[in-house]
Amino acid sequence: GTELLTRLKKALVEKEDVALPMFTSCSPGWIKFAEYYYPEFLPNLSTCKSPQQMFGAVAKTYYAQKIGKKPEDLVVVSIMPCTAKKFEAQRSEMNSSGVQDVDYVLTTRELGGMIKQAGIDFELLPDDKMDAPLGLSSGAADIFAN
Q1: Could you tell me the CA-to-CA distances from 23 to 19, 31, 99, 119 in Å, in that order?
Q2: Which Gene3D superfamilies match (predicted)?
């Protein structure tokens, strides 16, 4: 995105000293590893939150406002394959609305166990309409098709 382009412009055009290469910030395991073992590379990390945390922030700010609720009245549960996402959700800086962006994180294994324990058979569930709280698409992808 624009963060990388901004860094490249500063480095290549404006000849400024910037932190390159830029490293991903989407993995909380990687972030913790870098913080502990390679703090000198922290400026190289993207300032973007992970997709999990971005969703939580949007849910607790934009969506809460859209439905007329306070952020603290919403509960965001994330289903993720990595146990490090549980740690990430509890980091003190993950609170865009003044409350934690993501309240609970279940691993995919935990969710699978809950589904099995509840005896849910997806083949036997009736068809239903999908909810679309933020719409189905924004049309932004059209920019890349042209």
Answers
A1: 10, 10, 27, 42
A2: 3.40.50.1780, Fe-only Hydrogenase (Larger Subunit), Chain L, domain 3 (3.40.950.10)
pLDDT at 72 over 90: yes
Q: Total domain count for the chain?
A: 2
Domain that holds residue 105: 51-119
Residues facing residue 107 across a β-bridge: 80
pLDDT in tens, 74-100: 999 999 999 999 999 999 888 877 899
57 and 40 in one domain? Answer: no
Say if residue 70 is in the same domain as residue 107. yes
Give whole-number Cα distances, 16 to 4, 9, 20, 39, 120, in Å: 14, 9, 11, 22, 58
* Whole-structure pTM value: 0.79
Specify the residue for token string 């005896």: 119
